[in-house]
Specification:
Blueprint (H helix, E strand, L loop, with lengths): L1 H22 L5 E3 L1 H11 L1 H21 L5 E13 L3 E3 L8 E3 L2 E18 L3 H49 L6 H29 L7 E3 L12 H11 L1 H22 L4 E12 L7 E10 L7 H48 L9 H21 L7
Parallel strand pairs: 1-6
Antiparallel strand pairs: 2-5, 3-4, 5-7, 7-8
Length: about 400
């Protein structure tokens, strides 16, 4: 009877200590796995940071596209001079020189309105736009990887919380027969309460919520069992894995680099028109205008072009080696995660847990490792497997 009383006392203490933070009044949020993931996608700082990077990349792309359109300038200079001969003044911040007439003039204005259009740039503008588009797509792919990592962290933290909650339930329901057992259960309860609180803290961090947020955890500790083959995982990785997607940008980088190399040997043609007023008024009677078509044709680049070509060949070899390494790394991570998931799944099926709802410490640990290996497999593949 003595040990039975101690057992009931421990169960009562466990219920009080463990249930209070979950069901007490003043709870800020009730978190399920789904709501935790949704909240993380909305408030996690890493995701928000990449969204800002995407905004910046879109703005940069718009800037590059503006070079396809005509450009216009207004230059206004106010001068005071005393010179015996007419001269040309070169002002650092002006795009062109200013003609200063002979004589003494305290205030002299030079006003110029000009507009020009690039007719042929040898691919310079298109290469700049291609680079900006590539950069935007790369950042968008990086954002998807960040989102998947955040979602995986949330799932693993939530799985850990449910695991320690389940162990607390198991220890609370234990029947005690000896004083030694009582002390051991007390230690385990204290340990699991500590691990539970630490897991909640990790979850709040993964979501992006304030660490002092009072939350209630809602969810069932169920195993993630899915019949999926290694071949399907590899196929999904080729479609969705971000590291595989980034390989295409290596090829684009080489194309852009070769384009820029050839650009150095191609002409540049632009056309423009300018209207200028000079004298004692901003827009006076003395005016002049001109229209022009300007062509710049490279003739000799010396040894530089040869060296650039050599550099591009070295980069191509380096990119090819990197592509092989990335493919090997992705396949290794998938096969390793798939092997671990299959091990825990087979071990769970061997326990035959489907016949009973009563969990032991051993079976709870199997479910915990099974779920974690499943989330690790999702991260290695690059997509949530529940949809496939």
């Amino acid at each position: 009877m003595k040990y039975l009383s101690i057992s009931f006392f421990l169960i009562f203490v466990l219920r009080q200590n463990f249930s209070y933070p979950l069901f007490a009044q003043g709870v800020d949020k009730v978190l399920t796995e789904t709501s935790s993931i949704q909240t993380a996608l909305n408030v996690n700082s890493d995701i928000l940071s990449h969204q800002k990077k995407i905004e910046y990349a879109k703005s940069k792309l718009s800037e590059m596209r503006s070079f396809y359109f005509p450009q216009a300038d207004l230059n206004l200079a106010i001068l005071s001079f005393n010179n015996s001969n007419a001269q040309i003044a070169s002002i650092n911040f002006s795009q062109s020189s200013i003609y200063i007439p002979q004589g003494n003039q305290k205030i002299h204005y030079s006003t110029r309105v000009s507009a020009w259009q690039n007719i042929y740039t040898g691919g310079r503008i298109s290469a700049a736009n291609k680079t900006a588009k590539q950069n935007l797509k790369r950042i968008q792919i990086e954002e998807e990887l960040v989102k998947l990592k955040v979602v995986t962290d949330v799932k693993m933290s939530f799985n850990e919380i449910l695991y320690h909650r389940e162990l607390l339930q198991i220890y609370g329901d234990k029947k005690l027969s000896k004083k030694k057992d009582t002390a051991d259960v007390k230690r385990r309860i204290m340990s699991e309460q500590f691990q539970y609180k630490k897991a909640v803290l990790n979850l709040l961090r993964a979501i992006g919520l304030e660490l002092n947020t009072n939350v209630e955890i809602s969810g069932d500790f169920n195993p993630k069992i899915k019949n999926i083959s290694l071949e399907k995982c590899l196929l999904l990785a080729y479609q969705f894995n971000d590291r595989f997607k980034n390989l295409q940008f290596s090829d684009i980088d080489e194309d852009v680099s070769l384009d820029l190399l050839s650009i150095r040997t191609l002409p540049f043609i632009s056309a423009g028109i300018s209207q200028e007023w000079t004298g004692e008024k901003i827009v006076g009677e003395k005016s002049s205008w001109y229209g022009a078509i300007v062509a710049s044709i490279p003739i000799l680049g010396g040894k530089a072009n040869y060296e650039r070509l050599k550099q591009e060949q070295i980069k191509e070899r380096e990119a090819a080696l990197n592509n092989v390494k990335v493919r090997d790394d992705v396949r290794f991570n998938i096969e390793k995660s798939f092997m671990e998931y299959n091990f825990w799944k087979n071990l769970l099926l061997l326990e035959n847990l489907s016949d009973t709802n009563i969990l032991t410490e051993s079976s709870a640990e199997i479910i915990y490792n099974l779920n974690n290996s499943y989330y690790a497999l999702e991260l290695a593949v690059g997509v949530e497997l529940d949809s496939y």
